[in-house]
Amino acid sequence: MKRVLSGIQPTSESFHLGNYLGAVKQWVDLQNGHETYYSIVDLHALTGDVDPKLLRARTLASAAQLIAVGIDTEKSSLFVQSHLPEHNQLGWVMECVASFGEASRMTQFKDKSSKGGADGARVGLFTYPMLQAADILLYQADLVPVGEDQRQHIEITRDLANRFNTRYGQVFTLPDAYILKEGAKIYDLQEPTNKMSKSASSASGVIELMDAPEINTKKIKSAVTDTGREVIFDLENKPGISNLMTIYSVVTGKTIAAIQDEFAGKGYGDFKGAVAEATVEYLRPMRDRALELLKDEGELIRILNHGAEKARVLASKTLKDSYKALGILG
Ligand code: TRP
Question: How many other C-beta atoms lie within 10 A of the C-beta of residue 214?
Answer without folding.
Answer: 10
